[in-house]
Write a structure and sequence with these properties.
The protein contains ten helices and 13 strands. By secondary structure, it is an alpha/beta fold.
Length: 275
C-alpha cells in the first residue's frame, strides 16, 4: 500500500504505527519545524509541495483536516487530480457531531444528519464533496477521541481539569488506537460507505473525569453546573448535545474487536503507560 496522509495529525500518527510492514506513507504538514518529528513517513511541506504527483502515486488517501471556511482545503487542492487517479481507498475523518443533539438516543449510520452549528454542517459538506469525486470514499464519523496525551490526567495533576455536570448529557468516545485499527481494517478490505466509530460505553464526561481521578489517586475537581459554568462557545456547544453512538457496523462489517471497549479500560492503559 502507498498512503497519502493529508493533514497528518494525532489519528494519522496512530494509523502509521498500526499499518502493515512495507506500507509507504507520505504525509503533509504546514509547519517546517514538525517535519523532523514525523516518524515513519516522508513529510511533505505545504503549501510549497505540488500534491498532483503524490495523488497519482497513492493507492490510499487519508484526509484528516477539518474544513476551513465551509470547504475542505484538500478537496480544493486535489479534486481535479484525484478524479483522474482514483485511489483504491479514500478515508475522510468526519465527526459524529453531524447527528446533532439526540437527547441521549442511539444513532447508527442510517440516522439522518441534523447538525447544530456551522462546524458540523461543514463536515457534511466535506463528506459529500469527497463522495462526489472519489468512488471508493469511506466516511468515518468519529466520536470523542482520547488516548495518550489526550486524557484527563495532565489536567488533574495541574489542577486545571474541569468537571461539568449537565443533567442527562451523555456522549460516546473512542481510543485513538481503536480508530487506527478500524482504518487499517478498512484499508485492507475497502467497502465504501459511512462508519460510526465509538466504544461500547457512552457516558457523561463528568464520569470519565471522576474515574480518571480515582485511579490516579488525584483530587476530584469540584462539580460545576453547566447552566452557570463559564464556558467557551465551543465547549458550551459540546455539552448542549447528547447522543449514544452505535458501533455495530465496524464490528460486523470490518471484524473489529475493540482493544479498549470502554473508557475505564482505556484510561487504565494510558495511566499504566505513564502517558
Amino acid at each position: 500500500m502507498r498512503l497519502l496522509s493529508l493533514g497528518h495529525g494525532y489519528v494519522a500518527e496512530a494509523l502509521v504505527r498500526a499499518l502493515p510492514a512495507g506500507t509507504e506513507v507520505r504525509a503533509t504538514t504546514r509547519r517546517p519545524e514538525r517535519m523532523a518529528q514525523m516518524q515513519g513517513v516522508t513529510p511533505l511541506l505545504l503549501p510549497d509541495t505540488d500534491l498532483a504527483p503524490h495523488v497519482a502515486w497513492a493507492t490510499h488517501v487519508l484526509v484528516s483536516a477539518a474544513p476551513e471556511g465551509g470547504i475542505d482545503p484538500f478537496w480544493l487542492a486535489i479534486a481535479e487530480d484525484i478524479i483522474d487517479h482514483q485511489p483504491a481507498w479514500l478515508g475522510y475523518l468526519s465527526s459524529t457531531g453531524v447527528y446533532g443533539d439526540r437527547q441521549g438516543a442511539w444513532v447508527d449510520e442510517t440516522a439522518s444528519v441534523s447538525p447544530i452549528g456551522n462546524r458540523a454542517g461543514d463536515r457534511i459538506k466535506a463528506e459529500r464533496s469527497w463522495v462526489d469525486v472519489v468512488r471508493a470514499t469511506h466516511i468515518f464519523r468519529i466520536s470523542g477521541i482520547y488516548g495518550p496525551g489526550r486524557a484527563p490526567f495532565a489536567g488533574l495533576r495541574a489542577g486545571t481539569q474541569r468537571r461539568i455536570i449537565r443533567e442527562g448529557q451523555v456522549f460516546s468516545r473512542i481510543h485513538v488506537d481503536d480508530i487506527a485499527q478500524v482504518l487499517r481494517a478498512s484499508m485492507l478490505a475497502p467497502a465504501p460507505g459511512v462508519y460510526n466509530l465509538a466504544d461500547d460505553l457512552p457516558a457523561p464526561n463528568a464520569d470519565v473525569v471522576a474515574y480518571a481521578a480515582e485511579i490516579a489517586g488525584l483530587p476530584l475537581p469540584p462539580a460545576e453546573d453547566f447552566e452557570t459554568a463559564a464556558l467557551s462557545p465551543m465547549a458550551r456547544g459540546f455539552f448542549m448535545e447528547s447522543r449514544r453512538v452505535c458501533n455495530r457496523k465496524i464490528k460486523e462489517d470490518l471484524g473489529i474487536t475493540l482493544r479498549y471497549p470502554n473508557y475505564r479500560v482505556g484510561l487504565q492503559a494510558i495511566l499504566a503507560a505513564g502517558a
